[in-house]
User: Fold this.
Amino acid sequence: MTGRRWLTLHGVLVLLFLYLPIAVIVVLSFNESKYGVGWHGFTLKWYRQLLEHTRIHPYVWNSLIVATVSTFVSTVLGTLLALGLARYRFPWRGGLLFLLYIPVVIPDVVMGVSLLLFFAWVQQAAGALHLGLTTVILGHVSFQIAYVTLVVKSRLAGLDPSLDEAAADLGAAGWTRFWKVTFPLIAPGIAAAALLAFTLSLDDFVITFFTAGPGATTLPIYIFSSVKRGVTPEIHALSTLMILVTTLALIAVQRVQARR
Amino acid sequence: MNKPNRWTRLLPTLGPGTVWLLVFTLVPTLLIFYTSFLQRDPHGWLSGPLTLENYRRFFGLGPDGIDPLYLEILGRSLLLGLVTTVATVVIGYPFAFFIAGSPRKNLLLLLVVLPFWTNFLIRVYAWIVIFQRKGVLNALLGHFGLDPLLLYPSWTAVYVGTIYTYLPFLILPLYASVEKIDWTLLEAAHDLGAGRLRGFWHAVFPQTLPGLIAGVLLVFIPAVGTFVISDLLGAGKAILVGNVIQQQFGASRDWAFGSAAAFVLMAVVLTGLWLYARWAGERSMEELV
Assistant:
């Protein structure tokens, strides 16, 4: 049984590695000292500043707007794509799958600059699409679509096709059949896809970095520039709050799943 | 099925998404390729005639021999991608078995996912706090009377940060495969006289391949293309292809050369993917997608 003991030791070391940086941030968020890592006593003042100082609020707001709108658009488009891909056979299917995998397999920096280039060309040719929140949203949808489609498609693949056929035999046509039969069955898959799209958008830095103009600063962009200038403890407090919220959300999700 | 009927079925589902992907994915990618043959004009905008100059510059082919500056940078990016992939496999492979064999699977899985959901830049920044001259690591070393290490900024810091960032991307898909392993195959192998190593290699390892293949792709592609981690943990001194691209589209404002660098990076990744797919076998690639 020594094998298992080695595995456990390795596991504990990996967990330490994964949590060391997070522990550092959490501890610093309660540290009285503004600079350096020396411990100068416990304080909650960075949390108070985070709430009182309105400087960060617009960035949080921008991030939420981008994530909400892009998740909505990409979930609708991706779900439709997944439905079409699962139901129909057509000659350009391979081409469509290829298109779908472009955002998954090319490095995000390449995708970011190609979108920047595209928006610049459109701007020159048509005078439209100046860099701003809209271009960020367009960029986010473009990488989210692929992930939404893949998640919903895998859910559809596990579905019993006879249910759909039975509904068709009973005379349910097109959209009725979709809303009454298919949609309730794939709803959990759509929800999971939307959640994934939302987190991808919220955490995205690279695509946003290239597609955001002035006034479209999202939270990750702000964090990047403050890391380069020197991070204020408010950022530690904000990160700690985000860790807390995601922990609680994940525990809640696991509880609900365990009960089922 | 007659033709008009077929289009009325296909268009509402596949139409909008296809148009979106054509406009916002395919066209921009083609634009990169096209722009890589243009030149920067004096106003910082792009103009013709079409030229191979950007590629000549990237590959360093001059009249007086080869200047390998950008090739070296490309090599460094590939090295970072490969080392990161190997390191995450070495660290993550046993870890996936550790989770699968633990009575507290759900908790461990939660612990792997959690750092993932903390902003990626914050996690990278935390490594600066750990590695900087008066940082956590040196405070610890000083406590034990050891000499301080100057790890920030450094390539070591970039490597640690990259491995740290992408480790969960390897563990999660791999765990999905490990969890589904049919252990009776291993028993059968042992009954047939296979030793521990042979039993593992023939009865267990092949079953983990789908997850391993997916994980390797999820680690290698972003690691090769990163510019954020090298920028932050190398403090602007660790230059990768991603940094070159970012600089050309940013401060240097030579979009034509930046496009050539981006296209080379994309070509290298896609070629690697193709070779990998041939090595890994078509079937496992299909399982992945």
